Amino acid sequence: MPDAPLPDSLPKPLKVVLASSGGADSLGALVWLHNQYQQGVIDEITVVSIDHQIHPDSAEWSARACQQASFFSIESHCIKIDVPTRGIHGQHSLESRARWARYEALRSWLYRRYQPEDEPVLVTAHHLEDQVETFLLAALRGSGAAGLSAMPALTRFGAGWHWRPFLQMPRDDLRQFAASLPLIPVDDPSNQDLSYDRNYLRAEILPRIQSRWPQALVSLGEAARQSGDDLALLESLAAIDGNLESLERLPLSQLLALAPSRQANVLRTWIKRHGALMPPKARLIEFLRQLKTAEPDQHPELAWGDWLISRYRDELWWRIPPDLQAPEALPWTDKTHSIEYSPGKNIHLVRTQITDPLAIGERWLDRDWLIRTRRPKDRIQPQGSAHSRSLKNWFQENACPPWVRSSIPVVEIEHRLACLVGWAVDRHFCPEPGEASWRIERTN
């Protein structure tokens, strides 16, 4: 059985979750992964199938994907989801809305199933033709390196990774892995609908390209890989040019000191780290022009899709859509697992040093915690402060924009504000000398 390369950066032990549709590609991926498991390369395999509930037979297709896993005695799970009926995060077509909902469901499932230190690896069965189609569709949209790099082989995903082992493998080779098995793959009739751009490209365009240039798939796949290398260089340059450690804010003076092309590169890299779609090029350039010419009391904004970047004082701030704010209150009982306090947004505990200004003493871990939004009478007394103060005053002193304040998760312990996640810890809950320390971290 041919091997697909295993990236050196994959965690050990290697815990793999295959996102399976039950189709021929997913079945081939399942067989290959099982072979790797038998060889000791993979330590654990689980199959998860998402039922989008779009087609009348979707539940049967997910069940078949789980049956395929059972054939190899592999644990499996079927998850029903509701695809948004309107566009969300710039995803407007049914295909893109279903893809967004699928990955959100997988991300949430991984957070519930695994500890952050497990670093689970989500595997999808994308192959060479998928990669080439994505590359060509991006080229037709006039995309730059970010679009032309198509799908990366390995990227961070939630608390773990997303691995596409088969991007350099032709579809027929992937499907051949399962050709001799008595298993019937799912045949989704929507794959024949030429009203979808990808299907049209696959059925009408790629065969003609290959008939003229037999090596076209390999060459176009290599072009996508090279674009990925170019993108990595651009992102490395952005990390040098701009302080990108914070997802919430970006220093403005450092950005405006750069040449326009490098300004745009920093912003695009920052936007990508949020998992957002790229804004139109003309709108991005106009925003940068406004930043350069705006008076101190002016606050230019870049708005596109469901995203918004605003200037506040000498920083750019990433705005959280109002419908993705945290719920009013949510108990956090089991601190050994992360908790989803808002769609796609989780918090979890990590060990830290006693000197960490955001450290909480271990003595508080067995108490009842409540994750909530701020309330009018909330007060906090940070470490080194002689008196408590209202959150309103504290936010003003720490240059926190008004729109950010309502999105910061508050941890309440024993009816007292203990922590503004990512911002401050009340001194009452700080570690005592020699006590083990924990930090609450957010993950998008």
TrEMBL record:
Keywords: ATP-binding, Cytoplasm, Ligase, Nucleotide-binding, tRNA processing. Ligates lysine onto the cytidine present at position 34 of the AUA codon-specific tRNA(Ile) that contains the anticodon CAU, in an ATP-dependent manner. Cytidine is converted to lysidine, thus changing the amino acid specificity of the tRNA from methionine to isoleucine. Belongs to the tRNA(Ile)-lysidine synthase family. The keyword Protein transport does not apply. This is tRNA(Ile)-lysidine synthase. Residues 369-440 form the Lysidine-tRNA(Ile) synthetase C-terminal domain. ATP binds at S21, G22, G23, A24, D25, S26.
